[in-house]
DNA sequence: TTAGTGTTTTAGTCTTGGCTAAAAATATGA
DNA sequence: TCATATTTTTAGCCAAGACTAAAACACTAA
């Protein structure tokens, strides 16, 4: 079930008003938050109820459902990642980013958001200090493991390095690995623990155990 | 006068169909390009005419105005800048960017585009080799010719493709050709127009005349 | 219990951008 | 030139998301 831009914005407002999906929210409150009229809100609540992202009892306000919470958190995640991008990469001031992020958050492309997240180095907070939900909507934490702990044929994505010295980052860059790269373990040598890694489905990389132990990945 | 997303898309289509604002464009052609019905197009042409971005004479098709051309080029500029961003910064493949750029191009923020341009180092061409109009809508085109128009022993560089369908881009990728590849014509078969191309001074590639006609290059 | 007050919903309207069916205008060819 | 074919427009309808005005409901206080 896909949501329109307007529906996404309502859901986000309801999520915020409900204090993280705990409280009931009234039609009037939503109208105030959305700067619209209660009559328009009633209409929209019916639609959101039909799509089962909220529980709607006429005259008694709404509660957000689990599915709705997930959707809202995804939108919030996108909004905050774009804010980080605008501030860190495009030199926007922290008070200039909201309007633009409000538009950018509705771009539909899971791949785009994954890559953006990698590109920004998996930030945990936006420029206003608000936390950024992870891919799964805050709930699941991603277990990270060092490359040398991965088994042959396992796939994943590089998310961090332990030693982020300039020298090591330079080395990574030189061999064509980077934060966000998709990787697959092709081979592990028993003798010295060195590994053969497929990067982005094209480049093959050989690395010592020491290097592998320095690179953190999530499995996929 | 602001344009809606739909209006921007129509204007872009009309600009493309009119070969850079020179030819008249028929209602039917616009309908085909936009994958919509002529009746819907008539309606939209009336609106675009009212906003003076096109000159609309009923039953005689439309011509784009100076103002319309400027608007269309601004949209194209945004589209191509985003494509560069996706490929250079987010490691998208050049055949994955179009759909997402189609959404991103409608984000309204002149500051965003200025900053993006500067962040990308003021690129002149997008990943498909198409020129990026500057802030004022000026385009610096390179003289390009199709591979099948090149003679034996001529050298050059691939800069664009005519048919940028995912299927064709995928094919190119598979055979090891890409935008920016340096090429040299080793042989042309009189009988069927097929060609033998040296890519990057190492790989030799055989291609039919149809494929060659689809690949644009600049001579060097 | 009932009247009053504020909240919420319904009903009907508007705009945008689609659609189909039918009418009108233009183009073509005998 | 006139009939036919093609293109384009008009007219009327639909859905989304807004609005206003009016009706329905819930809550409170006498």
UniProtKB/TrEMBL annotation, chains A, B:
In terms of InterPro entries, this protein maps to: DtxR_MntR_Metal-Reg, Fe-transptr_FeoA-like, Fe_dep_repressor, Fe_dep_repressor_sf, FeoA_core_dom, HTH_DTXR, Iron_dep_repressor, WH-like_DNA-bd_sf
Q: Give a GO cellular-component term.
A: cytoplasm
Record key words, sorted: Activator, Cytoplasm, DNA-binding, Manganese, Repressor, Transcription, Transcription regulation
Name the residues that span the membrane. none
- Subunit details: Homodimer.
Question: Source organism lineage?
Answer: Bacteria, Pseudomonadati, Bacteroidota, Cytophagia, Cytophagales
GO function terms (MF aspect): DNA binding; DNA-binding transcription factor activity; protein dimerization activity; transition metal ion binding
Q: Where in the cell is it found?
A: Cytoplasm
Q: What is the role of this chain? A: In the presence of manganese, represses expression of mntH and mntS. Up-regulates expression of mntP.
This chain belongs to the protein called Transcriptional regulator MntR
The primary location reported for this protein is: cytoplasm
Domain HTH dtxR-type spans what residues?
1-65
Q: To which protein family does this belong?
A: Belongs to the DtxR/MntR family.
């Amino acid at each position: 079930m896909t949501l329109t831009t307007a529906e996404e914005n309502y859901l986000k407002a309801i999520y915020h008003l409900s204090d993280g999906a705990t409280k009931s929210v009234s039609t009037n409150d939503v109208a105030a938050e959305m700067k619209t009229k209660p009559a328009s809100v009633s209409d929209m609540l019916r639609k959101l109820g039909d799509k089962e992202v909220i529980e709607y009892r006429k005259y008694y306000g709404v509660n957000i459902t689990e599915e709705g919470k997930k959707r809202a958190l995804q939108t919030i995640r996108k909004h905050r990642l774009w804010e980080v991008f605008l501030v860190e990469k495009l030199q926007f001031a922290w008070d200039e980013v909201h309007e633009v992020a409000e538009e950018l958050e509705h771009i539909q492309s899971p791949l785009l958001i994954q890559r953006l997240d990698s590109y920004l180095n998996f930030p945990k907070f936006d420029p206003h200090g608000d936390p950024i939900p992870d891919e799964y909507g805050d709930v699941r934490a991603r277990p990270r493991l060092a490359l040398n702990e991965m088994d042959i044929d396992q796939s994943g994505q590089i998310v961090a390095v332990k030693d982020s010295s300039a020298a090591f980052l330079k080395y990574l860059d030189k061999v064509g690995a980077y934060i966000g790269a998709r990787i697959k373990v092709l081979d592990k040598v028993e003798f010295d623990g060195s590994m053969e890694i497929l990067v982005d489905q094209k480049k093959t990389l050989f690395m010592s155990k020491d290097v592998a132990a320095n690179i953190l990945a999530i499995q996929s």
